[in-house]
Amino acid sequence: MGVLAFRQKNARGNFKPHLSVRFRDAGSKPCVFSIDTSRTPKKYSQPDAYLITHAHSDHHGKSSMLSELSVCSDKTATALEIRHGREYRGATAGTYDKINIGDVTVKTCPTGHTVGSTAFYWENDVGTRILVTGDVKDYSMLPSCDVLITEANYGDVGDFSCYFQDDIEGLKSILNNGGRAAFGAYSFGKAQRMVQLFRDMGYRGPIEMEDDTKELTEKLMDDPGDLVSLGESGKDGICLVPPWNLNRLPQDIPRYVITGRCDYPYPSIQISDHLDVNGLIDMVKAIDPQVTIVYHPGGHRPQCFAGYLNSIGKDSIAIGDINNVLSNEFT
Ligand SMILES: [Zn+2]
Q: InterPro entries this protein is in (predicted)?
């Protein structure tokens, strides 16, 4: 198929996060795209691009954003700059767009995981269609492909916690009760999802936030409505704070955590930024690749998901089983 997926080791002999793919462009020139991984030191051979699917820290944009070779969506670049206080040095595209990397035309497609999260799609010299998804909540905009490079955050068919549905009705019933309520949600990703849900459900009142969450939400969302600092909304406003800060709010505010976990001392509402395992399986069936490479997250779930895909006749390999390794000394 004209695609080599490989991993690099750093100078200490440890694997760099995630992987790189080598292929030839339409003019037969060799190209390397590194995916959601940290930078390679300048003294070593550089990839043609660092693709950053979104601004969560386990996708390593904090490092690769400092390279002029990085590529991500404009909103991911904004999120990285706010989160890390550094200037993004790479190239940007929209979330449903095209960008030329050398002679390769790369399409971006939204994955619905965070504001600005994008998949990347391109073809090599022999017409093999390659798609890198990053984390996915909504695969409806993703094209079919031949080589799918995707995630398995909830990819263990044998784990009860990998099956879930968003509890939209539960959230609605809390909102419909009226009055003050506080929700624990991470500042980047989950907080913007919650603001969108509140507005979609018809809530037009103020939403209180910590200042860093407020800055992210104001700069990343097109129409977030009235966002105010903590304590500024009067007695009927909604609060949105990171889960670990719920206990800092006044005791009389009803509190909920937006999570699938059950180890917080507050009632939880299941709203996820991810597909559950059934969603991941449906995504692979819909995209219908010849081979799937499961590259994220760390731990055992990529192997679990790849194993399941193979069992249903969908050829797959997990990142931990990729034996093409190049140390940083390669030239
Ligand atoms: Zn993520």
A: RibonucZ/Hydroxyglut_hydro
Residue 18 has pLDDT above 90, yes or no: no
CATH class of 165-269: alpha beta
pLDDT in tens, 51-62: 999 999 988 989
Secondary structure (3-state) at 218? helix
State which residues have CB under 5 angstroms from ligand 1, the bound ion: 56, 135
pLDDT tens-digit profile of 85-133?
A: 999 999 999 999 999 999 999 999 999 999 999 999 999 999 999 999 9
CA distances 302 to 60, 119, 321, Å, are 18, 18, 10
Q: How far, in Å, from the CA of 252 to the mean position of ligand 1?
A: 33
Q: Is a pLDDT exceeding 70 seen at residue 262?
A: no
Q: What is the pLDDT of residue 331?
A: 33
CATH class for the domain made up of 4-158+275-327: alpha beta
Residue 2, phi-psi category: left (phi > 0), alpha (psi -120 to 50), beta (remainder): left
d(CA 144, CA 171): 34
CA 136–ligand 1 middle distance (angstroms): 8
Do 4-158+275-327 and 165-269 show the same overall fold?
no
Percent of the chain with pLDDT over 90: 78
How many A from CA of 56 to the centre of ligand 1?
5
